[in-house]
Design a protein that fits this description.
Elements (H helix, E strand, L loop, with lengths): L27 E3 L6 E3 H6 L15 H8 L6 E2 L18 H12 L5 E8 L2 E8 L10 H17 L3 E7 L7 H20 L4 E10 H4 L8 E4 L5 E2 L3 H8 L10 H6 L5 E2 L5 H10 L31 H8 L7 H8 L1 E6 L11 E8 L2 E8 L5 H6 L7 H17 L3 E7 L6 H5 L2 H13 L5 E10 H5 L6 E5 L3 E3 L3 H8 L6 H8 L3 H7 L4 E3 L10 H19 L4 H13 L20 H11 L10 H5 L5
Parallel strand pairs: 5-6, 6-7, 7-8, 7-9, 8-10, 13-14, 14-15, 15-16, 15-17, 16-18
Antiparallel strand pairs: 1-2, 3-4, 4-5, 11-12, 12-13
The chain binds zinc ion.
């Protein structure tokens, strides 16, 4: 614990001369970022953000609420006034003297306020901290204000937003201050159980006991640019490890790269960002998507409706760089999408995107692998191959969807999970396995669509769903055709033969019952007309969600488990190549899967080779 390092001592940078007053008025001040002189009134008009360098000056609790809430919507929540000095603490002055001085200087009872209000018309409970009051330190009074705000949010089923600014736990209250971390954390746990959205807004600085409790337990973490958050302060760490830390250490930008922060939002964008999030934060009573007017043909379920096609040609078509990516589809079919970032652990994987938005007005969570159209984008997105942090981000967003009762849509286009050294060090296999188990019991509708390449375990990790669909030109396979060719044929040039043997195209996978339906693509493929491809995807998703959303949680989970339970179970008389029957159902098709695996290329295989099927 680093309680001794708290109370503002963790801040290496002074909060700035402009920081300690709520409003600058007609005076001149010195910017805490670039040392430029700023005229007070102009600074206030700019929400106390420096026009030259973008430095976000601290705000008072009242100033923050004024910026955040709809005008006239604030109603303060009564909190029992805690006036204790549990230890009879004296340093150079008695603690009660310090409290009196802080109250006189700020007009506040302690370092936090809890209020009701609305943000862009959405009701919220907001708890906001004020750094001027003893460095925003967490003592019994702040813990009580936060907990009371959380309890009101729970009772009224209203989202809870917190704005933190704190040096850490309040030393003068000793272990009583420490216990506030436990008290506030369990209050957030109750909001999780009740399915109520929580959002944390990190302002500079947020350290110690506040960082290690309610500031980082929220569903969505938003930070102001440059805001620093951490458990231990920079100086304590530098003294301990005897190294100089990088300049951006513990800043919002550093934290987003390391998977802690979802969104960095400049102050002027905070209200619209929150408005978007609040609008998708829960499933409404009317939250069942309408069936499209003309549903016929939106999902092909009969093998006869799909032309015979060469599997290798499908592989090449599925890999075309012009095909719409997950972000393209999100852009074309969702409203008010908010991307969520990071695994809250180590990193934010750019090969996997996730977030909340609305499909035809209905809130949904969308998760998908992201490739790209250019060499730069592909490199930035790691060629669409997620790392373990990608799968952990996906799991985090799926849990959030389950908490809020939102359907999950996954869009899959990946050659596979990233095969790399770091990925193994961070337990890629565990991340994939845990996703499979999580999806098996997720108590909300899940629809998966393979839009391009469905590469092995890295694809299945997002495809344990109630409905599994494929775009017409997509492929889905246990291993890449090239990988299979080099292992079993000892010749990568045998990839076309391997693709055919693996039966990777949509027609074959529909026959095997791996997918429930195929989404038709425009003439020439999805890349020939991305808008038409997106509209076909939207129609198919609407049909699936209209079917699944009315089902209760037990029915959903039971049917999903049954769907996957039956793969590989032999069915009497089944044969992979027997017919083009139009009446094939997933259950009898699943039986055929067993027979299909007999079709092996005839060459000597070691037991090792026979079991090697998925090295990615
Ligand atoms: Zn500046």
């Amino acid at each position: 614990m680093t309680i001794e390092a708290t109370l503002g001592a963790s801040s290496s940078r002074d909060p700035g001369t402009a920081s300690t007053k709520g409003s600058a008025g007609s005076s001149w001040l010195l910017c805490g970022g670039c040392n430029t002189m700023i005229y007070g009134r102009r600074f206030d008009r700019a929400a106390r953000v420096c026009a030259d360098c973008g430095w976000h000056a601290p705000l008072t609790a009242d100033g923050r609420l004024e910026q955040l809430l709809d005008p006239g919507s604030r109603r303060d929540i009564d909190v029992l006034a805690i006036d204790g000095d549990p230890l009879g603490f004296v340093d150079s002055r008695p603690y009660p003297d310090r409290l009196r001085a802080a109250r006189a200087a700020t007009g506040l009872h302690d370092a936090a306020l809890a209020v009701h209000g609305t943000i862009e018309g959405n009701p919220v409970v907001v708890v906001v901290m004020d750094f001027r009051f003893l460095g925003g330190s967490l003592g019994a009074a702040v813990g009580e204000v936060f907990t009371r705000g959380a309890e009101v949010a729970l009772r009224e089923r209203t989202p809870l937003i917190t704005v933190t600014a704190s040096g850490g736990a309040r030393m003068q209250e000793g272990a009583i201050a420490l216990m506030q971390m436990a008290k506030t954390s369990q209050a957030l746990g109750q909001l999780d159980e009740a399915g109520i959205l929580t959002v944390s807004i990190i302002t500079d600085p947020t350290f110690g006991g506040v960082a290690a409790s309610f500031a980082t337990l929220a569903d969505v973490i938003i930070a102001e640019p440059g805001a620093r958050l951490g458990f231990a302060g920079r100086r304590v760490i530098e003294q301990t490890i005897r190294q100089v830390l990088p300049a951006d250490f513990q800043t919002a930008e550093f934290l987003r790269t390391h998977g802690v922060v979802d969104i960095i939002s400049p102050r002027r964008d905070l209200r619209p960002t929150l408005g978007r999030l609040l609008s998708v934060s829960s499933r409404r009573d009317d939250g069942i998507p309408r069936q499209p007017l003309r549903a016929g043909g939106a999902i092909l379920t009969k093998i006869a409706d799909l032309p015979e096609r060469d599997s290798w040609e499908s592989v090449r078509t599925a890999r075309r760089l012009g095909r719409p990516s997950t972000l393209d589809y999100i852009d074309m079919i969702l409203e008010d999408f908010t991307e969520l970032r990071g695994d809250r652990m180590s990193a934010d994987c750019p090969a996997l995107v996730a977030g909340l938005g609305r499909l035809d007005g209905v809130p949904v969570a969308v998760i998908g692998t992201q490739k790209g159209h250019t060499a730069d984008e592909l490199r930035h997105r790691n060629f669409g191959m997620p790392t373990p942090s990608g799968y952990r981000k996906s799991a985090r967003v799926m849990r959030l969807a389950a908490k809020l009762g939102l359907p999950v849509i996954t869009l899959i286009d990946t050659a596979g999970a990233y095969p790399g050294m770091e990925a193994e060090e961070q337990a890629q296999a565990v991340a994939i396995a845990e996703n499979l188990r999580l999806m098996a019991s997720l108590a909300v509708p899940v629809v998966a669509v393979v839009t391009g390449e469905g590469g092995s375990g890295g694809a299945l990790a997002l495809a344990f769903a109630d409905r599994v669909l494929m775009c017409e030109n997509a492929v889905y396979s246990v291993i890449s055709a090239e990988g299979c060719a080099s292992i079993l044929w000892k010749d990568p040039a045998a990839a076309p033969r391997a693709a055919a043997a693996l039966r990777v195209n949509s027609r074959e996978l529909l026959r095997l019952g791996i997918v429930d339906g195929v989404i038709p693509e425009p003439d020439g493929g999805a890349d020939a007309d991305p808008a038409a491809a997106a509209s076909a995807l939207r129609a198919a998703l609407r049909i699936c969600l209209a079917e699944l959303t009315p089902l209760d949680q037990m029915t959903l989970v039971t049917r999903r488990r049954t769907r996957f339970r039956q793969f590989g179970v032999p069915t009497a008389g089944a044969n992979a190549t027997d017919s083009d029957s139009d009446t094939s159902t997933p259950s009898d098709a699943a039986g055929k899967h067993a027979a299909a695996t007999d079709d092996q290329p005839g060459h000597e295989q070691s037991p090792h080779e026979q079991t090697v099927e998925a090295h990615r």
